[in-house]
Amino acid sequence: MTSERTRTMPVGVVVRRLPGVTRWQKWSWRPVSLLPGAKEADWAVLREEGDAVEYHAATLSLELHRTDTEAYLTALSDKVPSIYVVMRPADETERDVPMDVMFLTASAYEGQDYADASDVMVEKVPMPPGLIAWIREFVEAHHEEEIFIKRKRDKKRIDLVEDGVGDPRIRQLSDVYRAPRRKPKDTLQ
Description:
This protein has helices at 69-76, 108-115, 129-142; strands at 6-22, 25-36, 44-49, 52-65, 82-89, 99-105, 121-126. It is α+β, with helices and mostly antiparallel strands.
């Protein structure tokens, strides 16, 4: 086991702009691929094809923590291993950029937590093979399988006497432990 607790790599996010399908949304923005080890970028155009344009939107650092290896294994075991990219609409008065790429994570659990929020867009983007190998190596170095231990009941003695509970000599208004008294049957004779 190595002593490093975290590992970091810069990862570029490629966002594709397509024409919107409704009249209320002019453009559709979606992250489509990742560039491991990319340099800094600020919405640099990579490719144009008709109305479709691909941008190198941002380069963020992907951090791996040794305490989250179970979540990384969950993401790696998907049919298509993916990184979760979190984006939100940018303030139009602030910049010309339509979306802010806020965060990216390899943790399936953290991606699900962000997906529960309504103010952000979370997309799964397939991992390139080099990124899969990098994460798998980190997980193999740090993952410790947690052993399931079934909880057992306390070995408490139940034959001990509690003072006053159920004792007929102590006058009580109600006692949940006392058996109900038998009423004498009404007889005709």
